[in-house]
């Protein structure tokens, strides 16, 4: 089922950190149609969400997966494959605060090693009565040390390209790249519905070291919604795209970001694409 996308006037206001001239709408076909698929990790058959992630996504870097993740069978997702349900207990926001809400892990497909451009898609389903509050994080691609949480980006330590939901389900890109650590890009370029699956596609094209020619693109249910150009991801060619930064929680930090009640979001159908070597 396609997401309900709201018609928007021109472009919403952007963070002061981002040059509006570098932001637009993709003028190319969705990246899953242009690159061959190279991997499709999914939760294993382990009973617990934690073990299903460790085995299915081959990861040993994680947080919150024991406390807040359960495995969904194919019958519960309705997609013909299993998924993950992430819980956000009442009163939780950033993982740096107690109590702990949400979850995170990193997955690095071997087939993606050394990639300078890549594409990832996944499906997300907000609970039918989901309260978006002020916002929260969603997964995206990363490279290097995946800086986040106010960390600086120097062109050598890595980058992260998570998404966010905001009030009333507004979507945005939330990059940690050189000069833009935690910028709000294209807020309101699309809206997330509740109670139905939505397909997110994200494309990353790294810049040439010494040039500001990196690109990030997003499609929602196949519809082009956001493109940011002139990005500096790196200053060295040794930094490439590593994989999935699964990161989801309410916040921001502080009282205003916290969920007022127990809530959950479902995730499934992770796919990676990259140009043939």
From TrEMBL:
Residues 81-270 form the Polysaccharide lyase domain. InterPro entries: Polysacc_lyase_14 (IPR048958). It comes from Billgrantia montanilacus. The lineage of its organism: Bacteria, Pseudomonadati, Pseudomonadota, Gammaproteobacteria, Oceanospirillales. This is Polysaccharide lyase 14 domain-containing protein.
């Amino acid at each position: 089922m396609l997401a309900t996308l709201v018609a928007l006037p021109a472009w919403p206001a952007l963070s002061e950190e981002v040059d509006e001239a570098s932001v637009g709408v993709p003028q190319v076909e969705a990246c899953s149609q242009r690159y061959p698929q190279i991997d499709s990790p999914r939760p294993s058959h382990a009973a617990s969400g934690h073990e299903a992630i460790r085995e299915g996504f081959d990861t040993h870097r994680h947080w919150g997966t024991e406390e807040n993740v359960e495995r969904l069978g194919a019958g519960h997702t309705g997609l013909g494959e299993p998924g993950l349900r992430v819980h956000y207990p009442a009163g939780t926001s950033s993982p740096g605060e107690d109590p702990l809400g949400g979850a995170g892990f990193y997955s690095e497909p071997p087939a993606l090693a050394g990639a300078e451009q890549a594409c990832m898609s996944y499906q997300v389903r907000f609970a039918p009565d989901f309260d978006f509050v002020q916002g929260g994080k969603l997964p995206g691609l990363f490279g290097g040390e995946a800086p986040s949480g106010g960390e600086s980006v120097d062109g050598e330590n890595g980058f992260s390209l998570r998404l966010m939901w905001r009030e009333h389900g507004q979507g945005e890109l939330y990059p940690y790249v050189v000069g833009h650590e935690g910028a709000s890009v294209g807020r309101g370029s699309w809206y997330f519905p509740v109670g139905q699956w939505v397909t997110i596609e994200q494309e990353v094209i790294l810049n040439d070291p010494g040039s500001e020619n990196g690109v990030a693109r997003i499609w929602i249910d196949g519809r082009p919604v956001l493109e940011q150009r002139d990005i500096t991801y790196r200053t060295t060619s040794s930094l490439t795209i590593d994989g999935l930064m699964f990161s989801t929680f309410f916040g921001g930090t502080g009282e205003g970001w916290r969920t007022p009640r127990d809530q959950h979001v479902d995730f499934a159908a992770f796919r990676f694409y990259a140009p043939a070597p």
